[in-house]
Amino acid sequence: MLRDELNNEEILEIARKIIREGPICNHCLGRQFAKISSGVSNELRGKILKELLADSGEVLETGKCWLCNGLFTDLDRWVEAALKKLDRYEYDSFLVGTKVSGLLMENEDLMWELTGAVFAEPLKAELNREVGKRIERATGKRVDFEKPDIVVILNLWRDEIELNVKPVFIYGRYLKYKRGIPQTRWYCRECRGRGCARCNFTGKMYAESVEELIKTSIIDEFGADDMILHGSGREDIDARMLGSGRPFVVELKEPSRRHVDLQALEDKINADNNGKLAVTALRYVDRDMVARIKNAKARKTYRVVVELRRAVKEEALMDAVTKLNGAMIEQRTPLRVVHRRADLVRRRRIYELNLVGYSGSTCELEVKCDGGLYVKELISGDGGRTSPSLSGLLGVEAEVKELDVIDVEL
């Protein structure tokens, strides 16, 4: 059937033009007619075309293919190099891609100028497929065109194999029991991470962070090159993260392992951090979860210990709490963060505000509110930049002495 389809005067005339340019391999000849009959290899198409041309008296030159420069006779070398690179990685799926060299691109352009590309397939499409089939047979892994664990790149410019390893993403919630720990590493403002006397040559403003504490416990388990922590918002450095914990996703770069027992990993992280930090509910997720937790408008609940400049009557305090309960708060970017954030006015709602305890000039509050509300400024008023505020309603200076996040809804 294929022989009959190829034994067509138009097709044979195109094939004659091609072989008269010089030696050409079966793959490269057959690829120019790849859209004629499916389920057949380009190599077989090329072989049949050469037989038909030879039967018609055409002289076929032998030697290295002028189009691919012998690339398709060298497939086993590329496969062997790919398998050697892949050997250290755990993966279920892969895909092959090619960076075509300038010479091969020029040759293919010349071919299509000569014959047109009506029936043709690009060189790299065939190369990807042929190498992919061989890797499949050798490893038992499957080709995945949508979300492969690893992309094997044939770099024809540099004559080497490159790997693009898909990160591993793990969702969980963290609890931070110790104050004074930022969520991510803060580089020293003086030296910007290079190391100086101010930061004791560590390059950091703080000795440790949630990200670094988790990274220390997790990165070796996956044999990863690096780890990035993506949090659903962040608590102040001097705040604890309690209750249900803060949702996060860790992104593990270049992991050599992809399947780790997450319950055992959770236990390890918690044991390694000895009361500073704990993680819960670890599970594997896709990259999409990063955007989901970053963009979520999560409501948050805080516990706040407030110190008043002078004692107020409990009735006055209750009246202020009642007025704030359900209120829409307008906040201009606080003075303490305006140096690093846009100076905007934000509107955030308080859904629930309860007085938990009261003793003279100290009280304890529980606040449920929109994410993005600056709770410290809700209490202090920030010199009028936040309105209404507890301080403004009482007519007394108020300051947060302790702040804990106890719930982040997601």
Topology:
Layout: H1 2-6, H2 9-19, H3 26-31, H4 42-55, H5 75-86, E1 93-99, H6 102-115, H7 123-139, E2 142-143, E3 150-155, E4 160-165, E5 168-176, H8 210-222, E6 226-231, E7 240-253, H9 262-272, E8 277-285, H10 288-295, E9 300-308, H11 314-324, E10 328-332, E11 345-359, E12 362-369, H12 375-380, E13 386-387, H13 390-394, E14 398-408
Parallel strand pairs: 1-2, 1-3, 7-14
Antiparallel strand pairs: 3-4, 5-7, 5-8, 6-7, 9-12, 9-14, 10-11, 10-13, 11-12
Please name the defining characteristics of this protein.
13 helices; Alpha-Beta Plaits; THUMP fold; elongated; 10-stranded mixed β-sheet; 3 domains; 410 residues; 4-stranded mixed β-sheet; alpha+beta
Helix content: 25-40%
Unreliable spans are: none
Element-by-element helix/strand order:
HHHHHEHHEEEEHEEHEHEHEEEHEHE
CATH topology of the largest domain: THUMP fold
| Approximate strand percentage | 25-35%
| Whole-number tally of structural domains | 3
The CATH homologous superfamily of the largest domain is termed THUMP superfamily
Looking at the overall shape, the CATH architecture of the largest domain is 2-Layer Sandwich
Number of helices: 13
Mean of pLDDT: 93
The CATH class name of the largest domain reads: Alpha Beta
- In total, the number of strands is 14
Distance between the termini: 60 Å
Largest sheet composition: 10 strands, mixed
- The SS-based structural class is alpha+beta
The dominant shape is: elongated
